[in-house]
Specification:
Elements: H1 2-20, H2 22-29, H3 33-44, H4 49-58
Length: 64
């Protein structure tokens, strides 16, 4: 019983500190170039994300 309570307490503590310092953790993870490349590649593979990103960066095509 105490082992299960300890496990729950540890998972809760890790979750709390992970949420509290989430932006610092993201900055540490994305400091590496291959991690950045992996993150951007996986986000761009979601349906519709690449299209919306390109529209916001380059604008919509002009209708002539």
């Amino acid at each position: 019983m105490s082992r299960m309570l300890t496990s729950i307490l540890m998972i809760g503590s890790i979750g709390y500190f992970g949420f509290r310092y989430r932006y610092r953790l993201i900055n540490v993870l994305l400091a590496s170039s291959w991690m950045r490349r992996l993150a951007v590649g996986s986000i761009m593979s979601f349906p519709g994300v690449k299209q919306k990103m390109m529209q916001s960066v380059f604008g919509r095509p002009s209708e002539r």
